[in-house]
Amino acid sequence: MTNGWVDIKNTDMMLIMGGNPAENHPCGFKWAIEAKRERNAKMIVVDPRHTRTAAVSDMYVQIRAGADIAFLGGLIRYAIENQRIAKEYLVNFTNAAFLVQEGFKLPEDGLYSGFDEESKTYDRSSWNYESGDGRATPNALPGNVAADLTLEHPRCVYQQLKRQYSRYTPEMVERITGVPKEQFLKAADLFTSIRKDGDMKNVATIIYAVGWTQHSFGTQIIRTAAMLQLLLGNVGRAGGGVNALRGHSNIQGATDMAGLFDSLPGYLKIPSVDDKDFDSWIKRTTPTSSKPADWDSWNYYSNTSKFAVSLLKALYGPAARKENNWAFDYLPKIDREYSWTHIFNEMYEGKVKGLMAFGMNAVAIGPNSQKNIDALKKAKFLVVCDIYPEETSDFWRAPGITPEETKAIQTEVYRLPGAGFAEKDGTFVNSARWLQWKWAAVPPPGDAKLDQEILSRIFLKVRELYRKEGGAFPDPILNLSWNYSIAENPSLSEVARELNGRALDTGQQLPGFAALKDDGSTSCGNWIWCGSWTEAGAMMQRRDPADPSGLGLHPNWGWSWPMNRRVLYNRASCDVSGKPWDPSRALIWWNEEQKKWVGNDVVDFKPDSPPKDHMGPFIMNAEGVGRIFAPLAAFADGPFPEFYEPTESPVENALHPKRSKNPVAERFRTAMDKYGTPEEGFTIVCTTYRLTEHYHYWTKNNPMNVQLVPEPFVEIPMELAADLGIKGGDKVKVTSARASYQAKAMVTHRIKPMTIDGKKVYQIGIPIHYGYRGIQEDAGRTARSLTNSLTPTVTDPNAHTPEFKGFLVKLEKA
Amino acid sequence: MVLVHPTRRGFLKAGTGAVVASVLGFDVKTAYAQAQELKISKTTETRSTCPYCAVACGVIIHTLGDKAKNVTAQVVHVEGDPDCPTNRGTLCPKGSSLYHDILNDRRLLRPEVRRAGSDRWEPIPWDRAFEEIGRHIKSARDESFVATDAQGRTVNRFENMAFIGGCTDTNEFNYLVVKTMRGMGVTYIENQARV
Q: Chain A contact for B83, CB < 8 A?
């Protein structure tokens, strides 16, 4: 979230789409209700199902799963046509005025300029700004960008944006999304009403969850929302922003901490094979500022080398020295994708031989479950650390595997009992970027152990073997910094202090990332968390609930990254002269006497940069401004979002039928990767979701939750049920190109049939929570099948997230 | 830094008698006696965070037993933390059943191994498990380690083992994952955050 849970109470307008917070984030959703009650805020809910969030909204719009970009693109068009935009914000705080170089082409035919049909990738060099001083900068942003502050130049970003979405007319929105034109216009009018006559006082928020991310174009859906928020001047303000409701207690922290193949802690980029040494890695990953000549850009990522050296000092201690490139060679260098779906793809192909899964039920969670099970059959070893028996460690006796087959499976599987949340201390990062410490209440039961002990002892065993026997490049293993008081079971407070970082000469905890150096004198495990455990103590353990501003900032509760800022980009909460757009919701402002920015929130800006210098508020962008046009390599599939159909879709793309799908989305080619079409009888759009009473694949072990919702079901529109002669409670079979799934039918009014481009389309929904290990499963009271056995292995080209929403199935009585 | 530990029990005691008497208008002695004997009256309160969604509601875990070395604390109650600014004491149906997550007879209690070709789990001592897993990892790494690629560029990759992490692993644990796995050269590091 750019903002936070409590901040939602400050809003005047909510667009909730791709998420269902009333059911999936109930205790955070209270702040949306608070906004309705206290501010008379309006709530628009766009969802394929009439959810409980929809039930309390001011306007519910039913949409076809996966058609979100068409809807949001339509909103952008409407805002521009009706001039319900934030002109001053747009010109000064975004790249709307920047000129795009000649040779860039919009995707009227479904393709941007630079597409290579063979490799299915774009040459993105034409997706660049025009240089303001005539100096060509192939494949790099120009230092001096040509701009037209009147926004009239035909090649300026604003005019390109206008042209791009001119095709997203209300009629086109209706054809693609199934939302009737009149209803769309009503929603568009309501949402953009906050900018009626250009008034800047009111503010809108956009709230989403995995209903947006889990598509083969998920990143671009979120991009469209961010662009709309920039267009309306809603980013950086109390009650505004683009707010991802993350689905797990520490999923934000796991992202920050780079449990992902392509990054290192604090969103540093993993080195590539072309980075021959530390300096070339830093040069490639450090942006240089790119802006109109008389504007200023802080370009905070110009400090990348300080973050990187401090990280390498934390990882390798004295073994990271200037003379050895700060141990740069210890880091693996990549030249391809190693994401989730690739792990199982390459394991299925016999290349990946081992897997360690800590608190991660891979078989249930990933798409195309059977492929994952078949992949594990080929592995040599599997180590699972969990608290309950689950599908992954039990893959060798999954339903359908005969005793003979079990005997043939040569995988050695270790199932290690880890600790539950109440038995562990340490921090989680919530959706609002707050780090909150928790304390352990009880020890792990039986012989179960703390996860850090399990991991440490495995690592120390590997290290011992390398020390005794030698082996392939043992240096990074032997030299890994591991100076914890108890090496076999490190204290997490000690690790948390290492994450914050310290000055190596004095040993003092650093006050914040501005103190980081690239001369080897500081160490820091994650630069964005620098400031979380300072000499003043553990900031993330603070428990003062006071809220002096009344804006829900709670500055002394826990600690929010970066630097305890509660609302990101908060410089944009003020006009160009530094005065808040709405004084009653002022986050920060320019104090002319003190010559600095002051306010209720920690300033997310260069504190002494006066408004007259025109420094951009988006300090992490090289441009200093928000990117309505995302240049060069920012995205794999286009500098503006374009609507593409899901990989499995009941219709062709009404914008460009010959180029229906995202041309750069990744599909796989093993025998297990099948994709269905309407011609093969797969005509029903299927989406997956969560229930309030259950949490992923975990609470099927909890007798209370099982009692609340004991068994799986398939949510089916009444009209479809009537067509097929299905009654509520009947057993039904859902079949995709990959597998079948059986459960009881729940016949409902909540999903209506839709008309998509003149064709009647049904949608059904399946909760994800069940599998083949659980209270009901073990008692034989369910069909023991996994929802994800139905879902396809196809991923978003930017985030590499699979398309769990909006795939095709058939439905029949079982 | 301000550390605030408001005494909720003190508030209950102060509030129960006076407020209830004036509002209800009947003999409150019985009710007051009940309040004094609440099962949480002698518990230790531990502040924690709900492990489910990213609202990250504050929860209080009540245990009996004073955490002394020879005493095993017993969880008797879990409730929302009224001080937490986000949830203000509320919990959803999942948070409300956390007690049954902590005290659950389905919990895994000992390390086990399923041998190649076997149809059952068998117990394995922790030390032996660490030794065997350590050996598996070292063999896999030594077999497959790529020091330089076809063009002679240094890559130092360990590509035939993957690590996947969960959504309820703490930041500190996740850091140890990055440290050890990147330290070994693992490229396939992924997390629930992707899917």
A: yes
For residue A757, pLDDT over 60 is answered with yes
Burial A330-340 (b: 16+ CB within 10 A, else e): bbbbbeebbbb
- The reported pLDDT for the residue numbered A134 is 87
d(CA B77, CA B96) in angstroms, rounded, equals 10
The first and second tokens of residue A287, run together, are 């942006």
> Distance (Å, rounded) from C-alpha A518 to C-alpha A304?
9
**Whole-number Å distance between alpha carbons of A347 and A338:** 12
Residue B6 belongs to domain spanning:
1-38
β-strand partners of A717: A748
What is the arithmetic mean of pLDDT over A184-200?
Answer: 97
B148 touches chain A (CB under 8 A): no
- Give the domain CATH number at B88: 3.30.200.210
Beta-ladder partners of A45: A16, A60
Query: Higher-confidence residue: B66 or A35?
Result: A35
Q: Give the number of A-B residue pairs with CB atoms closer than 8 Å.
A: 492
Following DSSP, what letter does each residue of A573-587 receive, concatenated? GB-TTS-BSSGGG-S
Do residues B16 and B49 both lie within one domain? no
pLDDT above 70: residue A738: yes
| Nearest chain B residue to A802, by CA | B195
Q: In this complex, do B156 and A329 lie within 8 Å of one another by their Cβ atoms?
A: yes
The tens digit of pLDDT for each residue in A254-283 reads 999 988 999 999 999 999 999 999 999 999
What count of other Cβ atoms lies within 10 Å of the Cβ of residue B52?
Answer: 28
Residue from A245, A368, A393, A438 to probe the interface with B (highest B Cβ count within 10 Å)? A438
| In chain B, residues 39-78 whose CB comes closer than 8 Å to chain A | 44, 46-58, 61, 63, 72-75, 78
Low pLDDT (below 50) residues in chain B: 1-22
CATH superfamily, domain at A6-247+623-634: Dimethylsulfoxide Reductase, domain 2 (3.40.228.10)
Instruction: For A133-184, write each residue's pLDDT tens digit.
Output: 988 888 899 999 999 999 999 999 999 999 999 999 999 999 999 999 999 9
pLDDT per residue over A490-526, tens digit each?
A: 999 999 999 999 999 999 999 999 999 999 999 999 9
| Mean pLDDT (whole number) for A406-434 | 97
**∠ CA(A763), CA(A769), CA(A771), 5° rounding?**
110
Residues of A in contact with B154 (CB under 8 A): 276, 329, 333
What is the torsion angle, in degrees rounded to the nearest 10, for the CA atoms of residue A35, residue A40, residue A41 and residue A47?
100
CA A129 to chain centre: 27
Residue B28's pLDDT is 60
CA angle A601, A603, A608 (to 5 degrees): 145
What is residue B36's predicted lDDT score, i.e. its pLDDT?
62
Q: Which residues contact A118 (CB under 8 A, 6 or more apart)?
A: none
| Domain co-membership, B57 together with B90 | yes
Q: Give chain B as a DSSP string.
A: -------HHHHHHHHHHHHHHHHH-S--HHHHHHHHT-TTTTPEEEEEE-SSSTT--EEEEEEES---TT---EEEEEEE-TT-TTTTT---TTGGGHHHHHS-TT---S-EEE-TT-SS-EE--HHHHHHHHHHHHHHHHHHH-EEE-TT--EEEEEEEEEEEE-TTS-HHHHHHHHHHHHHHTEEEEEETTT-
Just give the CATH number of A340-436+447-476.
Answer: 3.40.50.740
Per-residue confidence (pLDDT) for residue B60, from 0 to 100: 98
Query: What are the chain B neighbours of A532 within 8 Å (beta carbons)?
Result: none
What does CATH list as the number for A657-813? 2.40.40.20
C-alpha distance from B150 to closest chain A C-alpha (Å): 11
Distance from C-alpha of B81 to C-alpha of A27, rounded to nearest angstrom = 12
Report if residue B122 sits inside a domain: no
pTM of the full structure = 0.95
